[in-house]
Amino acid sequence: KTWKHTSASSLRLSPEEISIGESFWFIGSNENNVHAWYYPPLQNQRNLPPLLVKSHSGPTAMARCGLDLEIQFWTSRGWAVVDVNYGGSSGFGRKYRDRLRGNWGVVDVEDCTKAAQVLIASNKANKDCIAIMGSSASGFTALGCLLSTDIFKIAACKYAVTDLISMCNSTHRFEEFYLDYLIGNIVSNYEKYIKRSPSENVNKINVPLILFHGLKDKVISSEQSIAIKEELLKRKIPVEINLFQEEGHGFKDGTIKVDVLKKTEAFFRKYLNT
C-alpha cells in the first residue's frame, strides 16, 4: 500500500486573520436556552453578511471553539458562521443532553433554525443569504431544516444520514441502541422513522443543494445521496453531487477536503449571488 505524506506547513496566520468564536446563547426549541459559537466575518461589509449555519456531527457530541480552518475558510470570505450546540449536545449537563431523547430530527432542527432567526433579527445576517451545512448526522439535521422551513436558501451535505430505517438496520454494534434513545424503538415508533427521514420527504426540499459522498462509505451508502439528487432533478431543483472513488465515511484526503470547500463556495455564490 502506498501512503501519502504531507510535510508540515509553513503557513502562519496572524491574529487579524482569525475569526474568534463568540459564545452565544439564544432561546431555542421549547423556550430553552441553547448555546452556539458565533464567528463574525473578517472582511468589512457595508451590507449584512451571508450566514452559514452548521452543527456538530454525532447527535450527542458538541461544538467547540478551537481553531477550525474550515470555519476560517468562510469567515475569511465575508461569511458569518454559527456552530450550534443544539439540545442534546454534551458538555452542558444531563438535562440539556436529554432534550434530544426521542427528539432527534425535531429539537436539533428547531434549534438550528432559531439560531439563524435570532441572528437575522439582531442584524448579524442577511435574511436572503442563509446557508446550512452538515455531514453525517449533522447532514440529517441540515436536511431536516430544509424540510421544515424556508429560512435556508441553500445547503451543502457530506455523506448525510437520509434514511433512518436503513440506519437502524445497518448500524454497528457500538451504536446498536443509539436510535432507541434518539427516536425510540423502531417497532413502536416506525412512523416517526418514516416521517423524519429526509429520503421519504424530498418533495419538501425546494432550495439548491450540493452533495458529497465517498464511494467507499460503509456507514451511509452513497446511494442515499444519489437518490436525493435524482428526486430533486425530477422537480428541477438545482442540485449537484460529487462522488469520490477512494473516500469512505469522513473524508481523509486533504486535497479533497479543500476541493469540497471550493466547490461548495462556488455553488453558494452561483445561487445566492453573494
Indicate the topology.
Blueprint: E1 22-27, E2 33-39, E3 51-55, H1 69-75, E4 80-85, H2 94-97, H3 107-121, E5 130-135, H4 137-148, E6 154-158, H5 164-170, H6 178-182, H7 190-196, E7 209-214, H8 222-234, E8 239-244, H9 254-272
Parallel strand pairs: 3-4, 3-5, 5-6, 6-7, 7-8
Antiparallel strand pairs: 1-2, 2-4
Helix pairs in contact: 3-4
Salient structural properties:
eight-stranded mixed beta sheet, single chain, alpha/beta, 274 residues
Cα-to-Cα separation, first versus last residue: 44 Å
Instruction: Name the strands of the widest sheet in spatial order.
Output: 1-2-4-3-5-6-7-8
What general form does the structure show?
Answer: globular
Per DSSP, what share of the residues sits in E-state strands of 2 or more residues? 15-25%
Determine Rg (CA atoms, Å): 18 Å
Which regions are unreliable across 5 or more consecutive residues at pLDDT < 50?
none
Strand-pairing-aware structural class: alpha/beta
The largest sheet is: 8 strands, mixed
**Count of extended strands:** 8
Calculate the mean pLDDT score and round it.
92
Number of helices: 9
- The H-and-E topology, N to C, reads as EEEHEHHEHEHHHEHEH
Helix content, binned percent: 25-40%
